Each structure stands twice: as structure tokens, then as C-alpha cells.
Amino acid sequence: MPPSNTTAADQLTAIAREGQRIEQPLAGGGHLVWHAWGRGTPVVLCHGGHGSWTHWVRNVQALARHHTVWAADLPGFGDSDNLAGVADADGLWPAVAQGIATLIAPGGDAHLVGFSFGSMVAGFIAAERPELARSLTLVGAAAMFGNPSSLEGLVSVRHITDPAELRAAHRQNLKVLMLHADATIDDFTLLVQEHNVARDRLPNRRLAHTTLMQTLQARWRCPVQGIWGRHDVLYGGDRFSRLREVLRDCDLRRAHILEGAGHWVQYEAADAFNERLLEFLSLVDLERGAAASAN
């Protein structure tokens, strides 16, 4: 991370400039924008709703020491263009899969990592294009148990024009949905949230409130792990205790619950998250290498 005496915007720009910006043509026109860092076995990061690649801003540098990291701005988010007629994850995943097949890992596969809404995109790819998925990591996965137990207190920002009121609303929403500790919501965090929400152009998504992932998991053939924050509001009640039950038809290797973190676990507990993700990716790569040697 750049020095703390730089502005929040400077920090974000510096991290982006360490990598490359690649534009993938989309069917019907426009581009899907990828950001890439590092060298090694490819890792594809799919961000959450109201997001962009910056949902992974505390992870890409650590991952890039061992892998080529490809973080998408999914169609309709961030700097990527919309796909005509597409309003949810079930219409987005083919474009991401095409990028993996032609740009990221031609003739091969990649580790898929999906956060919240992005877990559905990664989950669709692992189910529909299993040859592209070396592994799948679910991060605060949406569409696992249907509607969250409680999201009371969320504020609509769509019609707020006063800057101070808008900033307060973003802070409130981060506290309610995304993060556990108030201290995490600093100027940098607010900048990421403000920038992302302003560029979310798919407002009527519905699949996150279903149990889609329970259906998809029966078709995942790759090793799977999950990482959650202990205080993830999507997993209130007894939902953590039911994870292995609902994911019983896939090759679930690990289910990590990180203490002191909320839904945006890879941001709030970045060091612990990076350690667990890298360990899993290394083990999968070692298994792949051992299997190739045996043959």
C-alpha cells in the first residue's frame, strides 16, 4: 500500500498503475475492463454488487507475488460497458468465461474467486464451463440461503445530491451491510464505496436473494473453499452451521470463518484472507502438478 500521507485517491491510483488495464471486446459493442498484476497461475477475481475491481484493493498486491491476478470490472459496473438485455449474474458470466478462455488462460484454466454477487458469476462459470475452473473460492457468497436475515438501516443514495448527506449515507450502508468495525470506514474506504456505487448500472438484480448457489454447487467439479467474516449479515442465525450441509454435493475442502470481519471480509481482514486464499491456491496447484507428474 502507498504511504499513508498520500490522499485516498492517490493510493487507489498508485495500486492500479502497478498493473495493466486490458479491454476485452463485448458482444454487441463496448468492452469488459480487466486489471492485471503479477505473474504465475492465473487468478480471476469477480467483485460484489455496487462494486468494481477495487473490492480487491487490499488483496491484489499480495496475490500478485505468486500469481497473475486478473480483476474484472464486471459488465455494467466500474469502467466496463453494459451488455444489452443483461440485468443479473446469469447474463454476465459468459463474457467473463470468454475472457478466461481467450485472454487469461487460453487452452487452460484459472482459479476463480467470487465475492458476494461475484460468487454467482464465478459459480456459473464453474458449473457451465468446468474446464476453465482450476478451483473456486466463495467469499461472502450471495444466493446461498435466500434473503439475508436483516438489512435494516440501509439508505437509498439514488436521489441524494448534498455531498455531506451522501457521504453519511455511504458510511451508514458500509456499516449495515459491508463492514463490522466502525474504524474500518475511513476516507479511503468511503472513496472506494462512493466511486463504485456511482458506477453501478444494474439496479434491479434479484438472483442474490435466491438459493441459486445451492443448485449450482452440484455441478462444480473443481476443489472449492469458502471464506466468510464472522459478522457477515447475509449469514445471521444458524447459517454458518449449515454451510457444509448445503455445499455437500461439491468438493468443499475448507470453510474459513474470520473473526472481527463483516461481509467485505477480504477488505476488513485482508491479511488473514490473503494467507488463507494463497495457501489454498498453492495446495491446488501442487495437486495439479503431482497429478501431471504421475501421468
Characterise this structure.
This protein has 295 residues and is an alpha/beta fold. The protein has a single domain, classed as Rossmann fold, CATH 3.40.50. The protein is built from 10 helices and 8 strands. It has an 8-stranded mixed beta sheet, sandwiched between helices. Helix 1 packs across helix 6.
Largest sheet: 8 strands, mixed
CATH superfamily: Alpha/Beta hydrolase fold, catalytic domain
Low-confidence stretches: none
Q: What is the CATH architecture annotation? A: 3-Layer(aba) Sandwich
List the domain count as a whole number.
Answer: 1
How many helices? The count is 10
What global shape is seen? globular
Total E-strand runs: 8
Task: Determine the structural class based on helices, strands and strand pairing.
Answer: alpha/beta
Strand order of the largest sheet: 1-2-4-3-5-6-7-8
Spell out the blueprint of helices and strands.
Elements: H1 8-17, E1 20-25, E2 31-37, E3 42-46, H2 60-64, E4 68-73, H3 89-104, E5 110-115, H4 117-128, E6 133-139, H5 163-178, H6 187-197, H7 212-216, E7 223-229, H8 243-246, E8 251-258, H9 265-268, H10 270-294
Parallel strand pairs: 3-4, 3-5, 5-6, 6-7, 7-8
Antiparallel strand pairs: 1-2, 2-4
Helix pairs in contact: 1-6, 3-4
